[in-house]
Amino acid sequence: MSLIEELKTTFKLNKEIMxxxxxxELAVFNPIESGLAELxxxxxxxxxxxxxxxxxxxxxxxxxxxTLVKLRGAVxxxxxxxxxxxxxxGRAIDARSNEIQGKIEIIESQCKAQENIVDDEVARIKxxxxxxxxxxxxxxxxxxxxxxxxxxxxxxxxxxxVQFLELLNxxxxxxxxxxxxxxxxxxxxxxxxxxxxxxxxxxxxxxxKAEKANQELIKIQQAELRKKDDENKKLAMERAExxxxxxxxxxxxxxxxxxxxxxxxxxxxxxxxALEKARKEVADKKLFDSVRTQFATIETAWVEIVRLTKLQxxx
Length: 315
Known about the structure:
By secondary structure, the protein is mainly α. 91% of the residues lie in helices and 0% in strands. Among the domains are: 35-132; 282-315.
């Protein structure tokens, strides 16, 4: 029989002994438990009849403190007594167990050191293999990322080298073609942008020229407008002067006309007065009216007078 089997047998016997001992220890409480029914019966008979039943209250208190409290205290003391033994036994068991386990651990460490000769080498070899796998994986990931290829880490771990090289070659060709297309498009876009920028610059130059010409035209138009306005103002002043002059001349003509008319009216009036006076002086009014009719104006009368005067002189 091995040492472990002997220990198992011994531990089993000890457990049975301990169980028997515990049963014997707990048997101490059996008489007390047996008497609880009688104590309960006694307690049920102790009744307080009311608030004035002091004797009944005294009997109940005496039974509780004198019997029940003391009995409970005795049970508690016995519990502590029995448990203290087992607590001491437990501490002794822990100490002895730790002592033995420490001695076993020394022997175990010696064995573990021998195991580590193999385990450490296995671990080292595994670490090297893992490092190689990781280096290969990192290299594969870097190469695929360089050509912007999609991939699965698990697939790369399990992929044979030949398959990976084929995948990398396909992805590289695809990437090179995409890069060539991208560069061509960027070149075209750059050239297009350059042409557009040049066209924009020319358009801006033309726009500036047009703006400048427009500004010059506006200045010329404004100058012409100012000149025309000045001319209009001058013309208006000249017209005003002419109008004023014409008005003055018109006023003068009106004044002269009024004066002539006044003179004419005065002359007519004088003639009328002279005629009236001559009529009054001539006795034969009928003859006067006949002469007046014959000579409609004073001028014709003067002409006739001159003729007669010449005839009179000739005689």
